[in-house]
Amino acid sequence: MAVSWASGAYIYYPRTEYNRLICSLYGASIRSIWSAGLSLVLYALLNGSQTCVHSILSWRPFSPLAAIGFNVYLLNTILPTATTAALRNNDHISHLKLALLIFGDLGMDMLFGLLLYLCAEKPFIQLGMNLTKILENKPKQDPSNLSQMGYDNKVKVATEHL
Questions:
Q1: DSSP letter for each residue of 49-89
Q2: What's the CA gap between 5 and 41, in Å, rounded?
Q3: What is the domain partition of the chain in residue ranges?
Q4: Which residues of the chain, if any, have pLDDT below 70?
Q5: Closest CA to 70 of 109, 37, 105
């Protein structure tokens, strides 16, 4: 994660000269590097000792954010790209405008992430829970009793033709 932060600081530093190769490598790999770093942090939190980060992330208010977090991750490049593409001229960024853009994008990402969770993820979670409940309650058949499974009629029909 520190690699992605440092590379972002280098790429977006105003005095950095544009290099097509470096920018294309950054654009192609930054999400993978961030995902790998986040995976390592989560692995350390799940398998490591109880730390202050673990206790903070296990707070009750973070439960809803965990449900929509992956959807926000999937959607978080769409709105900034659409905002940038909608600009028809050069834009001058102030601190206030940057804060409004960041929090506006974050709020919209959270809203769309919640909608994606409710429309796409939650129905499949419910379906999986219902199927698991049905399969756990289904009585198991004894393979030694073939008549219970309907094999007795097939055996009779097969022996009659011989």
A1: ---HHHHHHTSTTHHHHHHHHHHHHHHTTHHHHHHHHH--S
A2: 15
A3: 1-58, 60-88+98-139
A4: 1-5, 49, 139-162
A5: 109
The DSSP element (H or E) to which 39 belongs, if any, is helix 20-47
Q: Six-digit token pair at 109?
A: 């990402």
- Cβ atoms of residues 152 and 158 within 8 Å: no
Q: What is the pLDDT of residue 115?
A: 93
CA–CA dist 13, 119 (Å, integer):
39
How many residues belong to the chain?
162
What pLDDT, in 10s, does the model give residues 71-91? 888 888 888 788 778 877 777
pLDDT of residue 143: 58
Q: Contact, 2 vs 36, CB < 8 A? A: no
pTM: 0.53
